[in-house]
Design brief:
Blueprint: E1 2-9, H1 16-32, E2 38-43, E3 50-57, H2 60-68, H3 73-82, E4 85-92
Antiparallel strand pairs: 1-3, 1-4, 2-3
Helix pairs in contact: 1-3
């Protein structure tokens, strides 16, 4: 399994609607790109200006398709316009646990 992790740092004065639109576009990629095995988008709990993306792919070939996918490319372009810093990390690691929605106790 290949994990693709991205950290987006927004300027503190970015419009909330613009940031939310980018986060929604990132989350929507899972429904548009079949190579994505897992996707989560969320805001950093310690740094209000940071949003994170975690995705999982079967292998490097699937990640390569994702990177060039016509639904992904404009989202990356918009992120580059809005963010003051973007950091990416791609790691090969065993598949994680079976991820399920939390259940109420």
């Amino acid at each position: 399994m290949l994990w693709h992790i991205v950290r987006f740092r927004f300027p503190s004065d970015v419009e909330e609607a613009e940031r939310r639109a980018l986060e929604d576009a990132l989350a929507g990629l899972q429904d548009q790109i079949g190579e994505i095995d897992y996707l989560a988008v969320g805001r950093d709990i310690d740094d209000a200006d940071v949003t994170g993306l975690v995705t999982a792919f079967a292998d490097e070939a699937a990640l390569a398709i994702y990177r060039e996918h016509p639904q992904h490319v404009p989202v990356v372009s918009r992120a580059r316009e809005l963010c003051e810093e973007i950091q990416r990390l791609d790691i090969a690691a065993p598949a994680g646990p079976d991820l399920r929605e939390p259940t109420a106790d």
